[in-house]
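YM 10:42: VanZ like family protein sequence, as discussed on the call
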Amino acid sequence: MSLRKVPLIATLVLFGLWAIAFTATHWPMEPDNDPLFPHVDKFVHAGIYAILAITALFAATAWNYRWSLLLAVTVALALVGVGMFDELTQLFVAGRTADPLDLVADTFGAVVGISLYGLVRGGRGSEELSASESP
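YM 10:58: structure's back
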């Protein structure tokens, strides 16, 4: 595979993951749905948004955007906007509600994903000290 295709593929993966998440959160639910444990949906929301954040940052850096605090904040704000859209549009789906705590979980997941990406990325791309510059 050509390296020139990586940004496009990363972007398609990002939108594909978002489409899967959007479909899953907009599937009509029965009111008697008994979760595995209380608030399991909050963990799912956080996990989905962590994965979306990591994928968004990977796609952005594949398009040659430099990893920076500005990029991290931009991705975080974009994902909060997506989370708000997701919650508001659930008002129109049978058995779904707009839950502000889901938005909190989405935001938390995005921050965790961005932090993990930053930690992994922080070890790469930094210049190494030459032998004469080492302490």
